[in-house]
Each structure stands twice: as C-alpha cells, then as structure tokens.
Amino acid sequence: MRAKDVMTIGVVSVLADASVFDAAEILTSEHVSALPVIDDKGRVIGIVSEADLIRRAEIETAPHKSWLHRWLDDDVTKAADYVRSHSRRVRDVMTKNVVTVEEGATLGEIAELMAKHGIKRVPVVQDGVMVGIVSRANLLQALMSREPDGGGSRPSDAQLRRDVADAVSKHGWSSAWPTNIVVSNGVVHLWGFVQSDAVRNAYRVAAENVPGVKSVKNHMRTVPPSVNMGV
C-alpha cells in the first residue's frame, strides 16, 4: 500500500500569515494536534502544532530558563526564543523543516520517516502542493484493513499442517530439537522443545499467520541452552 491509498484528503491547513490565535482556534475546533502551514500557492512550508503554541507570553507559559542557561545563550538564541513566545504570526512559531512524501511512497517508507524524525504525521505533496496527509492513525487504519475476514473455503487439516511446517522452516530460529505439528478442525497444536520463550512465541506467531488457521495451542516447552538432547 502507498500514501495515496491511505492518506486523508481535504486536510485542514493554515496560512503562514495567519495569527497564532487563528491556528489555536482551528486546532481546537477540528480536534487535531497539528496543522500543515501553506503559502498562497498551496505549498507546504511548515507545521504548527499544539506544542508550538503552549509556551506563550500571553498565558505566562513562556520558557523560564535558569540563570546558567541565560548566561550561556547568545543573543541570537535569546532573540529566537523571544520571537517564538511573543510573535502573533504562524510563520514565526511553526516548525519549518517539514518532512513530506509523494503519493507513491510506501507505508514502510512513511513509517521509517516517522520513526527517524519522531513525527506523527507526514504531508503528501504533488508538485510541491499538498494533496493529503498520512498520520499514525492512517497507518493503523491500513493495518485494520488487512485483518483476515475468515471467509472462503478453509484448507484441509493435512494442508494446514504442511503450510505451518513450511512457514516455520523458513526462519533461522526454528528449533533443532524434535517438534511436531498436529492440526484438528483448523486448530493447530504445537509440540516439542525450543531453546527460549522467544522461539516458542515465534512458532505461535508463524502458525497464526498461516491462512486458514483458526487458533493455535502452543504446548512447546523451553529447554535450557546447557541441555544437549539426543534425537
């Protein structure tokens, strides 16, 4: 799936020359935590979030630095801090380094960008103009759309046994000790010995992901690494 498949369109935005009061009103009325900031041509030039607006001189929440920080800060830093807490224009308080993607970006690429930059949403642009936005919520919606519906014909128990065995054998963590898979009416029973709880859980997850499996009963037992079992 790609950005164009999951993005929210008709996204509420704010102009760079709007006031911080306008931005705050939009954030509260639309129940969102951040707004893309656009210029008069619709190009994304920033993001303004709740975090950008809560440290304000008007409500006496502007940052109060210790005497040491005030002494270490140069005039440029002091001036920038003053602008962010006192300016009434969105362009002065917004985050300017905006991470954007194009419509063809994969969900994997988007998730990677979110993790790398510590952000919750990514504007989607086409020729520089915003056409939508992908948020963490959109990724969760994409995940829910892939939930198995349980429809269609179910494979036979014999086929499920082969499919589960194939699914497990593809991974390097599969146990070198004796294991067995028994399937009855779509319920998979896992038996045998594994080297850790992590491997035991991995067996269960691999089986659960095989199409047609109703549920998994994990009877596997963990054995300390020091134990050398004969086969």
Notes on the protein architecture:
By secondary structure, the protein is of the alpha/beta class. It has 2 domains: 143 residues, Roll (CBS-domain); 66 residues, Histidine-containing Protein, Chain: A (2-Layer Sandwich). The protein contains 10 helices and 10 strands. The strands form 3 sheets. Strands 7, 8, 9 and 10 form a 4-stranded mixed sheet that branches. The protein has a 3-stranded mixed sheet with strand order 1-2-3. It has a 3-stranded mixed sheet with strand order 4-5-6. The longest helix is centred in the last third of the chain and has 13 residues. The chain is elongated. The model has no long low-confidence stretch (mean pLDDT 86).
First-last Cα distance: 45 Å
Number of domains: 2
Rg is 27 Å
Structural class: alpha/beta
Q: From the 3D coordinates, which CATH architecture of the largest domain would you assign?
A: Roll
Main sheet characteristics: 4 strands, mixed
- Looking at CATH, the homologous superfamily of the largest domain is CBS-domain
Organism: Enhydrobacter aerosaccus
InterPro entries: BON_dom, CBS_dom, CBS_dom_sf, Diverse_CBS-Domain, Transpt-assoc_nodulatn_dom_bac, UCP036990_CBS_BON
Keywords: CBS domain
Pfam family, one: BON
